[in-house]
Amino acid sequence: MDLDVIHGYLTRSFWAAGISRDLVERSLQHSLGFGIFEGKEQVGFARVISDQATFAYVCDVFVLESHQGRGLALLLMEAVRAHPALQGLRRWLLFTKDAHGLYRKVGFTDTSTPERVMEIFTRHGMKP
Hints:
Helices cover 27% and strands 23% of the residues. The chain is α+β, with helices and mostly antiparallel strands and 128 residues long. Strand 2 (41-50) and strand 3 (55-63) form a beta hairpin. It has a 4-stranded mixed β-sheet, with helices on both faces. It is globular. The longest helix has 11 residues, at 72-82.
């Protein structure tokens, strides 16, 4: 994976704007990373946090603007869902602002139990 590309995109994304390179690097060390490459150039990325038995959280999904509109995000998510270590999980989770249609194509739906979902949210791992 190309840390420069990943950090470069995430630091300007709406969900991780300004994230430090160190934090991105640590997140990659403790996750499954998926990349899309054109030759040797990384043009897309997705990260999955999982116990590889019951649960997976999909995050940091992107395709560089110069490569969007070509179906690469769908290919990326199909590869994520097909990964052998992620088969038979009871629950997958993700958050999205504007890509609901993409994720529905690979099996995601609106949560059936929003009354059960809770969170603690802090920007970039800062203490509340």
